[in-house]
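haha ok so turns out i had the wrong file open the whole time. this is the CORRECT one, sorry everyone. sequence first:
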Amino acid sequence: MGGTDAIDYAVLDGVLDSVGGDREFLAELIQVYLDDSPGLLAAMRAALDAREPGEFRRAAHSLKSSSASLGAMRLSSLARELEEMGKAGVLDGAETGVSQAEAEYAQVSAALQAAGA
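then structure:
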């Protein structure tokens, strides 16, 4: 597959192998991720605005896991840091992290779409 720093293509190739080389199914997995991730980012923003660390943590956790599963390792790492903030109940400074995650998601989205979503 192609190359951009937003995606670890070795992970994406591993997913393709795990689904028996079925590129159509991989495209479906990518599309589900692309459909779900903006909602998770929005949920993090809403939880941040409402000062609800539990909801913030849950959305960050989901984004962390789904991003890692498709090779979006930088986004997964950012989401992990945000998840830890939510777990600790400390949302001060999370605004910057959410903005970074949104910017990274834009890169991830473009890379995954180019990869065949």
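The helical segments are 9-18, 23-50, 53-69, 73-88, 94-114.
again sry for the mixup
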